[in-house]
Design a protein that fits this description.
By secondary structure, this protein is an alpha/beta fold. The protein is 35% helix and 26% strand.
Length: 239
């Protein structure tokens, strides 16, 4: 399967808090955030990684080009400024192989590599599932997307506000079959612009989506999130 990273955001909240580096280059565990994520995907078997970065941060593109080698994973870079994550996904989809399953991630999702490898392995071994969505019960996002689930963790909806029995929020990691590309086109044609609207369209189309729980996924939007991520990663390195 292919892998894709959305790294085209402005990182405005970190910038307002005094962070000088573009978000993808902020160091976590001694490595740039996007470099660490590439290494995690490589350990999970990635051979090709599609990445979109914005035009206002050329140093991110330069860093990624410096990592290009003849060995796997091959990095396929798109440099384009977009209005949001769904538009970034659409730009990535223009160059991706639409006959292959894929895993899409945002650059600022911080998680345990071993849990990610299990997530990918389970998805690849489950031919009945149209998609696996990483979820977590750890809520530290300003506007979390809540995930409603049935008895076997089948996803029944994506919610702006939780129901009494809602256990999870979305972790920003999506493993999907090729059919999901067509629904992305349909969303764009309908004027939808947000990733959560796209996720809702997958449920509305009858796709069987499974929620796969991670122990913790940190969405690194603020300086406090970076501090939490450093603690999280230091514990990971000690285990």
């Amino acid at each position: 399967m292919d892998f894709a990273i959305i790294a085209a955001g402005q990182g405005s909240r970190l910038k307002s808090e005094g962070q000088d580096l573009p978000k993808p280059l902020v160091r976590l565990g001694g490595r740039p955030m996007i470099g660490r994520l590439i290494d995690v995907l490589s350990l999970a078997g990635a051979r090709t990684i599609y990445i979109i970065v914005n035009e206002e941060m050329p140093e991110v593109a330069d860093y990624l080009r410096s990592r290009q080698t003849d060995s796997a994973p091959q990095l396929r870079l798109t440099v384009r400024s977009t209005a949001g994550s769904m538009e970034s996904f659409r730009e990535l989809a223009r160059s991706m192989d639409r006959t292959r399953p894929f895993c899409l991630l945002t650059v600022d999702s911080i998680f345990r590599p071993e849990e990610f490898r299990e997530f990918i392995a389970r998805f690849e071994a489950d031919p009945e599932a149209d998609g696996y969505m990483a979820v977590t019960s750890y809520v530290a996002d300003e506007k979390p997307l809540y995930v409603a689930t049935g008895p076997e963790n089948d996803i029944t909806g994506f919610l702006d506000h939780p129901l009494p029995d809602t256990r999870y929020i979305s972790g920003g990691i999506y493993a999907l079959r090729p059919e999901a590309f067509g629904l992305l086109d349909d969303c764009a044609a309908a004027g939808k612009t947000r990733m959560r609207d796209y996720q809702r369209s997958l449920v509305a189309a009858g796709m069987r989506l499974k929620a796969w729980p991670f122990s913790k996924i940190i969405d690194a939007d603020h300086s406090s999130d970076l501090r939490e991520a450093e603690i999280f990663l230091s514990k990971e390195n000690q285990s």
